[in-house]
Amino acid sequence: MMQRNGLLRKSAVLFFCIFILLVTACDKLPFGYTKIGDIVKNPAAFDGKEIQIRGKVVEVTKLPLIEKKFYNLDDGTGQILVTTEQNIPGMGEKVAVRVRIKSIAIENDKNIALHGKEIKRL
Known about the structure:
It comes from Candidatus Sulfobium mesophilum. This is Nucleic acid binding OB-fold tRNA/helicase-type. The protein is α+β, with helices and mostly antiparallel strands. The chain has 2 domains: 1-29; 31-121, CATH 2.40.50.140. 27% of the residues lie in helices and 40% in strands. The chain has helices at 2-24, 36-41, 43-46, and strands at residues 50-63, 68-74, 79-84, 94-102, 105-107, 110-112, 115-121. Strands 1-2-3-7-4 form a 5-stranded mixed β-barrel. The chain has a two-stranded antiparallel sheet with strand order 5-6. The protein is elongated, with a radius of gyration of 20 Å.
């Protein structure tokens, strides 16, 4: 009986550790990302929403006088401009980010200044 209780306790601790590991690694898992092409095709459905995207950095811009930093992210389905307050990732770097999608105006599903504001780099 004593061995069974010890085994049960060890199993519970192991299960708890695995659960915590999975919960903290959720941002790194290969699912849960929105395709950039879907955002570009239907910007109204994503406007104001917080989503995760990933892709390759294909262009970077830094405007020093107004402290603005931008980079274009391409996932193979489309490109989107991402604004950030962090360091700009390097050209060609693959990044995953949580962003809030914004557009100055959407008229007849056409967007003006569609971009993602970086919340967290994953």
